[in-house]
Amino acid sequence: MDYPFEPFKIKMVEPIYMTTREERERILKDAGYNLFNVKSRYITVDLLTDSGTGSMSQFQWAGIMQGDESYAGASSFERFEEAVKKFTGKKFVIPTHQGRAAEKIIAHVLLDKGDIAISNTFFDTTGANFQYQGAILYDLPSPESKNIFSEKMFKGNMDLDRLEKILKEEGKKVKVITMTLTNNTAGGQPVSVSNVKSVRELATKYGVLLHIDACRISENSYFVKMYEPGFDNKSIGEIVKETLSHADIVTMSAKKDGLVNIGGFIATDHEELSMRFKEMLILWEGFPTYGGLAGRDLEAIAIGLMESLDEDYLKYRIQQVRYLGEKFRNMGIPVMWPTGGHAVYVEASRFLPHIKRENFPGQALVVALYLEGGIRTTEIGSLMFGADRDVEHEFVRFAIPRRVYTRSHLDYVVKVMETISETKAHIKGLTIEYEPPFLRHFLVRLKPLA
Ligand code: F0G
């Protein structure tokens, strides 16, 4: 596959610092073999996350200069509100400082102890905020998602049969259904509009609210346009609005498809709910015309949301991810297929079959990537989920920041993976030295097996 044409030129650059292997050995040891503890200046290619790590355009930077920092009624909020309304098609718009702040607010308003919430797959912060309210969670990914190497599209879908079964059995205890688009925890796989529509029908039938986590809705809509029958003549903007028309509540971390470094929002057509969200917003985030953000941030989001709908940009974006995935796959590396919207996921227990699950094959690959080439990735497997969840796969996520890295950076990642592949029999597993009680992957300290 050819590398996609980048529909932009570079106007400002940030240096990358190189490190030696000896330095990286020492840095890893000091960091307890946890890449969250490594300073970014010691990273050569940073694929830890696509969240808040993208480059802004000249129009966004120009917008920042217009930031109106008034506490109430800022004109920046007017521009933000208008853009979010246009993007989502929803009437009421509530800014938040990032995605999880929006999740915390809706969780508080919608859920009580013992209530049930269902998702195609909850992202960790969404699930954690809902659980914090005492809710019981069900992840219902589609049966197709089980085969991580099949060609099938829309593996991010919800399992509709299981959804109806739970709705029937649990009745009024189910308070909300959350559709995560794309499905990050399940490999950034897209969700079809017809699946969202069917979930809507069931939600209506059983009187449950439908919440869409729209972090990566522009990327999801590009897949819909390309692969879902009946959408090829629609614009990405139309597909985004059509998808979200099925939701009662939309939350979005604008750090992804908002193409900004910070920000988020809640959007809904329900006036009463919007008032209750605003009450909590004022308590936790700020007045409803800034919601934990500066006026300049609101300007950047308003512009970024619209830029994310550009088809040339999305084509480049999705193909860049696919390029890396194909290079890996051609080398015989087990890659979740098809590649999703924002990252390439490598199945490390198959890549490093000599490392036992309890010695974290995913984290062993994360460590090897840093040691060999200063590349930072993240483990999504036994280390991240620990004893809390059944872990089926040991993934390493290569998340690609938006509009940041060029072909030579990705080719460098491929070269490092090639070297690792040749010497992988020598890679060692790890054991835990220290672990915190929650979300352990952030603070855990490890050491390699002797
Ligand atoms: N929902 C999804 C699907 C996400 O991927 C994230 C963040 C959030 C919600 C929370 O948004 O970070 O703005 O509070 N995902 C990042 C990641 C952290 O690396 O995948 P936030």
Produce the secondary structure layout.
Blueprint: H1 21-30, E1 45-46, H2 58-64, H3 75-88, E2 92-96, H4 99-110, E3 116-119, H5 124-132, E4 136-139, H6 160-170, E5 174-180, H7 193-206, E6 209-213, H8 217-227, H9 236-244, E7 249-253, E8 264-268, H10 271-284, H11 295-307, H12 311-330, E9 343-347, H13 348-351, H14 361-373, E10 375-376, E11 378-380, H15 382-385, E12 395-399, H16 407-423, E13 430-434, E14 445-448
Parallel strand pairs: 1-10, 3-4, 3-5, 5-6, 6-7
Antiparallel strand pairs: 2-8, 7-8, 9-12, 11-12, 13-14
Helix pairs in contact: 1-14, 2-11, 3-11, 4-5, 4-10, 6-7, 8-9, 12-16, 14-16
Ligand F0G is lined by residues 49, 51, 98-100, 123, 125-126, 180, 184, 213, 215, 253, 255, 264.
Q: Please, how many helices?
A: 16
* Proportion of beta-strand residues: 5-15%
Number of domains: 2
Biggest sheet layout: 7 strands, mixed
The parts where pLDDT drops under 50 for at least 5 residues are: none
The CATH topology of the largest domain comes to Aspartate Aminotransferase, domain 2
Describe this structure in words.
With 450 residues, the chain is of the alpha/beta class. The chain has 2 domains: 168 residues, Aspartate Aminotransferase, domain 1 (Alpha-Beta Complex), CATH 3.90.1150.10; 250 residues, Aspartate Aminotransferase, domain 2. The chain has 16 helices and 14 strands. It has a 7-stranded mixed β-sheet, sandwiched between helices. A 3-stranded antiparallel β-sheet has the order 9-12-11. Helix 6 packs parallel to helix 7. It is globular, with a radius of gyration of 21 Å. The mean pLDDT is 96. The structure holds ligand F0G. The site of ligand F0G has 15 residues, from helix 4 and helix 5.
